[in-house]
Model the fold of this input.
Amino acid sequence: MDLRKRQRTGLPLLVAEVGFNHGGSRETAAAMIRAAAEAGADAVKFQTFRAADLALPTAAHFELIRSGEMQSDDALFLAAEARASGIEFFSTPFSLQAVEILEQAGVPAYKIASMDLVTPYLLDAVAATGKPVILSTGMATLEEIAAAVERLGRAGAKEIGLLHCLSLYPARAEDCNLAAMAELKQAFGLPTGWSDHFPGPKACLAAFCAGAEIIETHFTLDTATEGGDHAHSLDPAMLRGLVEDIRLCAALQGRPGFFAVRPDREFAPAYRRGVHAARDLAAGEVPGPGDLLFCRPLAGLSPADMEPLAGRPLKRAVGRNAALALEDFAG
Done:
């Protein structure tokens, strides 16, 4: 998985976060993979867990979590579905067993959820695979992030990406603080992006414009579906619109080296001022300001070229409106 895609192409690695919006249905999950691929996402991400990996049975959200459980062989099925759809499949493991399942599925990368940024055994297990790790930083201090990055590297992670994330569902605009991505980039020098919990696509587009190299946004087939993360997810039409808007913004932003290849340079002769005779001028005359027109098109001399020629006589006659050239002047 190319965490540095934006450096090569100008476009971010765009991840459609299915999470557990499939409601435990293999068929729904497969349909979501196909829809995400058709919308233009680079990767689709799931969550691999048992409810008991995450919460006690007495927890208020235990049943909601359990509704998103899948069978261990579903990862193999979904990975195959993703390959057939031309999109990368990976997942967030919430247990050591989940890492084993995802290794069997051949995932190209791992995601660490914000809650597990401070879970050493899970960081170690994921890093030991040697695959890229995308780390969400919700709820974390810079010191905690630094400790997690150091541990991942020490345990074998060769490539790490950081996602600025708010563990708020949904997040409010005033809480998003996309400038934090720059802080993460400055502090760690790693591929950096945005894990989105803001309703609709606008925060993702703003994150791209703020420099996000990775964008992860929740995905659903229908935002009106009850439960899960549906309400603050993007549906296929919104995801497609986001892809199109990001491509447009990337085209607008361009790449370094603009001044060597700027496309409007060819229009300079038509748009800049040249030096033209305001009347018929005879050989030997010294043209004064009233004898010259500084107007389009640029041909021969420009107004700036006239400064060192001030006071010089003409070597030949020049007709009205004709462009003056350096060789028209004596000396």
